[in-house]
């Protein structure tokens, strides 16, 4: 697509972000990009855009030869997958924010993308407004990137902030995150850590060239945290954050997981509040770099979508160079992590799974363990399925 070419967009979805990008494009005429048609699910809802723009027939966009760009901002990952595949087949460039769809189908989608040599950009899928993907893709060389540690889900960070600072209960804080348009339509994806692990699997592709399914990565959300955990954190001067980690553990070996984490004041992540996201990128030469910005919400997410649309003017494509590196990176589960567990009396925890136990004590409400465990044992620990066990990692 040349610099001069008019971008004629078919937009899928007119929710929080879809309506945002519609508004933003109207205010950015210099982009030479306009929305021709918008596909929505429910025709009867009132919309802040001319009725003539809307359709409920996805093929009227996908088969329209005038439309050369598909911007896909719907939350139904299966429908998004179908739309993106047909868009590839019809040679339309694609901008998507659907982390679930991308994470679950990345390998296949990239194969199709290569065949058709079409741009497929998704900066908004990871950390909202922060340009994480393009940075990992373009700037950081494989050998230099020693770690990625980030708060990548705005809703859970908003909930944890409100619980810690304003003493809101979990349900009220979640409701606020939903009302503000940060949460997924199915908020279980946020609070169970699924959205964060979807994002981590996309990060692994661009940071290390690792192709993996989110289900291969250890992940827990914030839904099993117990109020007593916040008391522990407060006493120790720590914050609880949901952190996505990828760390070099040896030659071409990466340990990757999403877990609630105790973060101390010295970490930049400690200061990331509300719906903001933050990622610390560890590099052998530059030491640590910190990227910070809004991770959810209408205009922050629209800014990333807009930047992808702008990049289409010069035919920008991710190259996935790290996947072609002869030295392949793989996931490793040998790393040991230090964890805190709080649980009820009846929980059957297999203590043999721990490499060592540093503390074990009880009060009248809960039992506590502070111990070291390998990711491998953690991954296989069926006792962790017990809903009343809260697990928090000590972030290094
Ligand atoms: N539900 C997501 C979040 C939206 O809270 O981060 C942005 O990806």
Structure description:
With 396 residues, the protein is α/β, with parallel strands linked by helices. 32% of the residues lie in helices and 27% in strands. The protein has helices at residues 16-26, 59-62, 77-89, 99-116, 132-138, 154-165, 170-179, 188-191, 194-208, 227-236, 298-312, 375-380, and strands spanning 7-12, 33-39, 54-55, 69-72, 93-96, 120-121, 145-151, 218-219, 239-250, 253-263, 276-283, 287-294, 330-331, 336-343, 354-362, 367-374, 390-394. Strands 7, 8, 9, 10, 11, 12, 13, 14, 15, 16 and 17 form an eleven-stranded mixed β-sheet that branches. Strands 3-2-1-4-5-6 form a six-stranded parallel β-sheet, sandwiched between helices. Helix 3 links the parallel strand 4 and strand 5. Helix 5 runs parallel beside helix 9. The longest helix is centred in the first third of the chain and has 18 residues, at 99-116. The termini are far apart. The model has no long low-confidence stretch (mean pLDDT 95). It binds L-homoserine. L-homoserine binds next to helix 6.
How many beta-strand segments? 17
Secondary-structure content class:
alpha/beta
Bound molecules: L-homoserine
Low-confidence stretches: none
Order of helices and strands: EHEEHEHEHEHEHHHHEHEEEEHEEEEHE
Distance between the termini: 45 Å
Overall morphology = globular
Q: What summary fits the major beta sheet?
A: 11 strands, mixed
* Count of helical regions: 12
The amount of beta strand, in percent, is: 25-35%
Helix content: 25-40%
Radius of gyration: 22 Å
pLDDT averaged over residues: 95
């Amino acid at each position: 697509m040349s610099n001069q070419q008019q971008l004629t967009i078919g937009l899928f979805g007119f929710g929080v972000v879809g309506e945002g990008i519609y508004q933003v494009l109207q205010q950015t005429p210099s982009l030479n990009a306009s929305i021709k048609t918008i596909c929505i699910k429910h025709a009867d809802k009132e919309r802040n855009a001319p009725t003539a723009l809307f359709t409920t027939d996805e093929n009227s966009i996908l088969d329209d030869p005038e439309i050369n760009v598909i911007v896909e901002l719907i939350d139904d990952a299966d429908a998004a997958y179908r739309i993106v595949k047909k868009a590839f087949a019809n040679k339309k460039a694609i901008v998507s924010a659907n982390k679930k769809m991308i994470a679950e189908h990345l390998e296949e989608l990239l194969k199709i993308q290569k065949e058709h040599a079409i741009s497929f950009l998704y900066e908004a899928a990871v950390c909202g407004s922060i340009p994480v993907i393009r940075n990992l893709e373009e700037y950081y060389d494989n050998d230099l990137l020693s770690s990625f540690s980030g708060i990548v889900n705005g809703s859970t960070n908003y909930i944890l902030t409100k619980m810690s600072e304003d003493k809101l209960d979990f349900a009220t804080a979640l409701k606020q995150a939903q009302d503000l348009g940060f949460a997924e339509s199915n908020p279980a994806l946020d609070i169970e850590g699924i959205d964060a692990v979807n994002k981590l699997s996309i990060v692994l592709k661009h940071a290390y060239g690792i192709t993996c399914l989110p289900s291969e990565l250890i992940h827990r959300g914030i839904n099993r945290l117990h109020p007593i955990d916040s008391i522990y954190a407060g006493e120790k001067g720590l914050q609880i954050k949901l952190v996505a980690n990828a760390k070099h553990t040896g030659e071409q070996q990466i340990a990757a997981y999403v877990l609630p984490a105790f973060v101390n004041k010295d970490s930049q992540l400690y200061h990331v509040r509300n719906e903001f996201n933050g990622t610390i990128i560890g590099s052998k030469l530059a030491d640590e770099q910190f990227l910070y910005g809004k991770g959810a919400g209408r205009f922050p997410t629209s800014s990333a979508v807009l930047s992808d649309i702008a990049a289409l003017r010069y035919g920008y494509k991710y190259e996935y160079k790290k996947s072609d590196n002869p030295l392949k990176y793989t996931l490793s589960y040998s790393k040991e992590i230090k964890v805190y567990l709080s649980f009820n009396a009846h929980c059957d925890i297999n203590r043999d799974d721990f490499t060592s136990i540093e503390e074990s004590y009880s009060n009248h409400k809960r039992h506590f363990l502070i111990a070291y465990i390998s990711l491998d044992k953690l991954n296989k620990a069926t006792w962790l399925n017990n809903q009343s066990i809260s697990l928090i990692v000590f972030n290094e």
